[in-house]
Write a structure and sequence with these properties.
- The protein folds into two domains: about 5-65 and about 200-230, no CATH class; about 75-190, Rossmann fold.
- Helices cover about 50% and strands about 10% of the residues.
- The chain has nine helices and five strands.
- It has a five-stranded parallel beta sheet, with helices on both faces.
- It starts with a helix and ends in a 7-residue tail after the last helix.
Length: about 240
């Protein structure tokens, strides 16, 4: 297993996996290595403070807004959509809601689900006919499904739209440019929108922590993709 795979499995700051590993390191330093006890306690306190800060809605909103903004497609201007693609990933409720909105407005011939079968079942239970849903359990990355989409659309050019959360969509757009694939981009809202002003923005919440976690992951992923040459470097 590569270091990138291990890092993705554990998760980044804000995730429960990262919290567990960080606490394990702090406890190890505090109780197993006596000479490092002070460092271990400082490590644990620092971990707690980081998670509290990331849980502030105003912090989560600031991190999320630092990602490139992708304008949503106005469905009223779209006369026809042959295929609707939904990427699995963070903020699944928002992705499902956006997919249903597009389905009701345009009734695409095919709804291609790139993710777990459970996501397809959720769409079918919500009213999309099962014979219109096509499942493709792609690897848990963003680049591999986009490469598959590009290859398919070169062979069978159709009018297609793609649903991903508004946090993931900047990376999707850059990959689409790299693969020279023409799509309608349909960013979905977050499962837990948070207030970035007023008193409630200063009250930590788990929903805000999730937004911070996902936005930090996307910032890191954009940097990694640029470093590998998979998307264009920033000017």
């Amino acid at each position: 297993m590569s270091s990138i795979s291990v890092a993705k499995f554990i998760g980044g700051p804000g995730s429960l996996g990262f919290l567990a590993v960080s606490c394990f390191v702090g406890l190890l330093l505090s109780y197993v290595l006596p000479r490092w006890r002070a460092v271990g306690r400082a490590w644990l306190l620092g971990t707690l403070l980081v998670y509290i800060v990331l849980g502030f809605p105003v912090v989560a909103g600031s991190i999320a807004s630092s990602l490139p903004r992708v304008p949503a497609t106005n469905l009223a201007t779209v006369s026809k959509l042959d295929e609707l693609i939904i990427l699995g990933g963070d903020n699944e409720n928002g992705r499902v809601a956006e997919t249903l909105d597009v389905w009701r407005a345009l009734k695409p011939e095919v709804v291609l689900v790139l993710g777990a079968a459970l996501l397809g079942r959720r769409l079918e239970d919500a009213g999309i006919p099962g014979d219109r849903i096509r499942l493709n359990d792609e690897p848990a990355t963003t680049r591999a499904p986009m490469e598959s989409i590009a290859a398919e659309l070169r062979v069978r050019p159709v009018r297609a739209g793609l649903v991903a959360s508004r946090l993931q969509m900047p990376r999707v757009v850059e990959l689409a440019r790299t693969f020279e694939v023409n799509l309608l981009f349909l960013p979905s809202e977050l499962d837990h929108e948070v207030s970035i002003s007023g008193g409630s923005s200063l009250i930590p919440s788990y929903g805000a922590l999730e937004i911070s976690r996902d936005a930090l992951y996307e910032r890191a992923a954009l940097s990694y993709y640029r470093s590998r040459g998979w998307i264009r470097a920033q000017p």
